[in-house]
Amino acid sequence: MSCYLNAENKPDMESVYIRENGQLYRLNQASGGLNDHVLKPKPSRLFSKGFSVELCMNRENDNGRTDHFIFTYTKEGNLRYSAKSLFSLVLSYIADNIHHVDSLIGFPEQIGEKLFYAADARQKFTEPRTGLRALQKFTDAYGSLVLQILCLKNRYLIISEKLEEIKSFRDLTCLDLSCCKLGDDHELLEHITKETLSSLTRLLLKDNCLSDAGLRRMTAPVRVMKRGLENLSLLDLSCNPGITNKGIGFLLSFKKLNYLDLSGTGIEDMMVVIQRIQIQIGLVYSEVPLKEFDHNCKTEGWAEHTVLQWEHIMQEGINPQRSLKSRAAVQHFYGKRARAEEPCESPLEGGHRKTCENLQFYKRRAQVCNLPLLKKKTEDNEELQKKRTPSPKPKDQNLKAKHLGLLMEDWDLLNSY
Questions:
Q1: Where is the region Disordered (predicted)?
Q2: Which domain holds residue 129?
């Protein structure tokens, strides 16, 4: 009891602090007055400077939901977390369930762009079942904003695996299908002629095993119904040996064509083709290779990263990196050098490159104005030649017609060329 009383009567020797005018003072008990110097309390630190936090998210327990908090650090090194905005939470939820959305028509472009990038970050467009349906929601609502330029040069695997996704892109202005070996009967060439791609102005079909039959099918909507590729201004058909002089007639329906490349095709009489294209389309033969056919186009649009994801998935499926590394290790162990295989070139392609090494055309502005005068001059020259040359005997011509099975009108048509 006495100890308790002594402890109770014992004065508290701890310091006493007083705040006055926004400053903190310590009361000096010995003198009973205030201490003159202002105390500067040390900043409290919850964690040390080397402390770090790693956020681990269990996707199995949260059913695909992302973390709703943002973790940052203060200047003093304290850990601070704040809740995400309601807009980001809703955007994440819709991106996770984009395949259940009925339509995005009417939504602003800014919202559509953020939603597309959020779905792309979750790789929603690479899923085999729901990827196509999710991509069509954006292409139907935003058109060329999703993709304006598509470059698939030497990417035939993407065309074979993602053909329906490629066909869903609308309002493309440039399409590069070079070195894809599509052939005349490919489904993608038929899709190009539809109204959904009537906005195409540049079409590159280099080295696709095309022939005159493929050109006839591709130009049929333009020649018959005046729709399809009517706005085409650049066309590359080089390195297609199946295209001959007969197929050139199908290209004359492209009245807005400014650049044409027929290098490496099966054209035999170049002078006749050059003169025919110059008279009927107004394109001039270029002796120098044109820079418009350098194939420097790149994929542009919201779906640029999506196409790269498709390509990465295709390469992972067929890339034999492990076998190549092991083979290189064995060759290095035995001191063998890798043999550089030279690309073999077929004699047919080599012959076409020698004969038709450069056959490119372009339209000059000055020639557009003088094109009617050029046509009149050629017509006058043809009339003078007809007057000077004696008319063939009808007996000989009838004998030729009977022998070859041609009518008189067919011979007149052939003589007009």
A1: 379-399
A2: 65-146
